[in-house]
């Protein structure tokens, strides 16, 4: 039932400009849950993850919103290069 609450809440956000701007300004998963609860919808971060496949199928605002939600609920994204371990290219000290 809570997965349906997520979809209903985001559908309401798609039609309400004020709520839409609040959802777009969410920076953390808990903020989205708290915003939903303030509007009378009860769901958890896990419910949001369960609802993502249904939300991806929608075009327009909900489809775009899913991409932002995936950033919030997905693994942390960083901008570090994937260089890995580099080979040693210096000189070894002499042992005496």
Kindly describe this structure.
With 96 residues, this protein is an all-alpha fold. It has five helices and no strands. Helix 1 packs across helix 4 and helix 4 packs antiparallel against helix 5 (61-73). The mean pLDDT is 78.
Summarize the structure.
The protein has 96 residues and is mostly helical.
Structural features:
single chain, 96 residues, mainly alpha, elongated
Order of helices and strands: HHHHH
* C-alpha geometry: elongated
Radius of gyration: 21 Å
The description of the largest β-sheet is:
none
Distance between the termini: 73 Å
What count of helical segments does DSSP give?
A: 5
Mean pLDDT across the residues is 78
Strand content: under 5%
Task: Record the SSE blueprint.
Blueprint: H1 2-15, H2 17-24, H3 29-38, H4 45-56, H5 61-73
Helix pairs in contact: 1-2, 1-4, 4-5
